Amino acid sequence: MHAITIEQPGGPEALVWTDVPDPVAGEGQVLVEVAASAVNRADILQRQGFYDPPPGASRYPGLECSGRISAVGPGVSGWSVGDEVCALLAGGGYAQKVAVPVGQLLPVPTGVDLVTAAALPEVVTTVWSNVFMVAGLRPGETLLVHGGSSGIGTMAVQLAKAVGATVAVTAGGPQKLARCKELGADILIDYREQDFVAELRAATGGAGADVILDIMGAKYLSRNVDALAVNGRLAIIGLQGGVKAELNLAALLAKRAAITATSLRARPLEEKAAIVAAVREHVWPLVSAGRVRPVVHATFPMPEAAEAHRVMESSSHVGKLLLVTPAGTATGTAA
């Protein structure tokens, strides 16, 4: 088969489509012929040499995929060759084939085509596990999503609205904010021109956000605490703004607030399986009913993954960037 390899860390040109050995479905795994994968910030970090796959995972980038099962390993039940699936991965999505633990498989939802389904696993599991399973967002509460026009952001907006929450977003510029509004965002904050703490307080009568989904880390830490409501929960899932910051614990205590920080890639298989099962139970019906949908900015042939990485690094996109394998369907772009 062919896969995107990284012989030396570097820029997008470090991504090379080359011939590699086929994977094999081991105990509790299936082999998926990949129709498409999706680009995530973690892939860029891996390409740059800052985020190695966990032990035992594929060395190729790609944290999600869609495709068809081509082989079933020992100890697998409930799945058959030919089933159309999408999957959460620890690596290996940028390839024509990938071995997937059975607990990380999801059926392609009704109403979603096979290629577009690749836009779902990573964002849905990230949002559901952090915003709902950990932070416990409830109907009537307010969620602040940093990077509302990103793949994670566009999914968080839709899921929060689907459960009856008020949603605030930060994004860069009126065009991205307009897209967030189309998805249901109620409070629109241009982080380039506005102070999100002041804007959020003004929009909520001084209350702030009950839950904040943060991709920035250190840069926003103290301001996020300022933006939290009493009993608020800050869920940190990214470190685009650095890794070290000072925190006024008195401010956290005064609000009886909580801070959590999680990642998916290195979690034990049983934890990933529990999240995937929760997504299938709670989110898949919303997707199949059309209440929540994947937002795809553009698709690229997988051998041209470097160009997709350049687009992500430019932050000019809204939603997901997909990579379609040569064996997948024809590619195109969608605004």
Distance between termini? 31 Å
Number of contiguous helices: 10
Low-confidence region ranges: 328-335
Largest sheet: 7 strands, mixed
Basic shape: globular
Structural classification: alpha/beta
Number of strands: 15
- How much helical structure, as a percent, in the residues? 25-40%
Order of helices and strands: EEEHEEEEHEHEHEHEHEHEHHEHE
pLDDT averaged residue by residue:
96
What is the beta-strand fraction?
25-35%
Q: Over all CA atoms, what is the radius of gyration?
A: 19 Å
Structure explained in plain terms:
Helix content is 28%, strand content 26%. The chain has 335 residues and is of the alpha/beta class. The strands form three sheets. Strands 3, 4, 5, 6, 7, 14 and 15 form a seven-stranded mixed beta sheet that branches. The radius of gyration is 19 Å and the shape is globular. The two termini are 31 Å apart. The model is unreliable at 328-335 (pLDDT under 50).
Characteristic key phrases:
335 residues, alpha/beta, seven-stranded mixed sheet, six-stranded parallel sheet, 28% helix, 26% strand, disordered C terminus
